[in-house]
Amino acid sequence: MTGLVTGQSLGLLVCMRCRATVRAIGEEKSACPRCEAPLFVRRPYSLSTSAALVITAAVLYIPANVLPVMHTHEIFSDEDDTIMSGVISLAHQGSWPIALLVFFASIIVPLLKLVALGEILFAIWRGRVRHTAQRSRLFRIVEFVGRWSMLDVFALSLLASLVQIPSLATVQIRPGAFAFAGVVVLTLLAAQTFDERLLWDANTHD
Amino acid sequence: MSSVIVCHACDLAHRLDSLAAKARVRCVRCRAELYRTNDGSLDTVIALAATALVLFVLANVYPLVALTVNGSTRMTTLIGAARAFNEQGYGALAILVAFTAVAVPLTQILTLLYVLVALRLGRAAPGQKVLFRILTALRPWGMAEVFTLGAVVALVKLSAQAEVSPRVALMAYGLLMIAIAALTNATPGEQYWRWVSAHGPVPRRPATPRAVPRRGSEGRE
Fold first, then answer.
1. Which pTM was predicted?
2. By CA distance, what is A106's nearest residue in B?
3. Assembly ipTM
C-alpha cells in the first residue's frame, strides 16, 4: 500500500454525517462547517462500544432461539412456537420460498452478524493486517442485510394483532420475541457504532 | 478546480478534478461511495415526496390485512400491529415497530418536503442542518420494505388455517416502500448540500473548509 495517503496524515477529517472533507484545527473539539455534526479523527470508543453490543447480542441470541416467541391458543390445541419451529411449519405448509426467506432473515442473518462483527472486532483488537479488504466487504454485507432480521418481528406483530378471536384462536407473544428483537437492534447498533476506518488503520504505517 | 476528498470508510485521501453534474465516485481502495450527485431537479424530488406522503396517509388510515373465520372478519391497521405488542405487555416491541415502520418513514418524508419546498421558494429552511443530520441518522432505521415482506410472511402463515386477504393499506404501503427507496436514491447527501448552496443564502463550500470550533468549547480553557 505504498503511495497511498490517508486523511489523517494530511490533517483532514471527514464528517461522518454529511461526509464533507474538513481541515482539522488543533486538538479541540470541532464541528463540521457544513452540517454542524461533531467531528472526530475516529469515532470515540468505537471498538469497545461495538464489542459490548456484540457480546450482549450474542448472549441474547440463546434465549432468542430457545424460548418461544409466540403461543397459539386454539379450542383443542395449545402450541408454542420458537423462531425455528415457525420456519419448519412454513416448510411443512409447502411455502418453500417464504420458509427459506424467513430462515435466512431470522436464523442465518443474526448468526452471520454476530460471527462477522465478532471476527472483525477481534481482528482489529489483535492488530491483524491481512485480509482487510475481505473484512471490509464482509462488514458491508452485514450492514446491508442486517435490517432484514426485523422481518419476523413485523410478521409477529401482525399475527398478534389479527389472530384475536377468543372463541377460535388467539396468538400471544412470548419472551423469546423480546430477546430476538434485542439481538436485531443491538447488532444494528453495533454496526452503526463501528468505525470502518479502524480496519484500515493497521494497514497504513505512518 | 481540484479538491481533496477523504474516504469516510478507510480514510484514504483522493484528489478529485472537475466533476460532472451527475457523478458517482468510489474509493479506489475500499470501494465505498465517496460522492454522488444526480442531475435531477428539485421539482421531481418534491413530487416524489408528496406522493410518498399521500401513500403514507392511505397506508395508515385503511386496514392492512383481513382475516375471515367462520364468516366473521377481523382487520388490522399499521398502528394496530404495533399496538398488539403493547396490549400484551411488550411496550418496547410496540415502540420498535411504530418507530421503524411508521415514525421514521413519516419523518423522512416530512423533513425532505419541508427543506426542499423551502429551497424551491428560494430560501433556506430554518434548521436545515439539524434536519439533515436527523435524516442521515434515521436512514438505517426506516424499514418500510422489511415490514412489507413481514406482512407477506404473516399472510402466508395464516393462509394455511384461515382465509386472509391483503387490503388497500398494504398496497399503499408497498408503493410507499418504492417511493421511499426512490426518494432516498434521489437525495444523496452531496446532492442535498448542492441544492442548499444553489438555492439558499449559505455560501458555496470551499474545497477544504476549516473546522469551526463547536459551540460551548470556547469557554473551556
1. 0.91
2. B150
3. 0.93
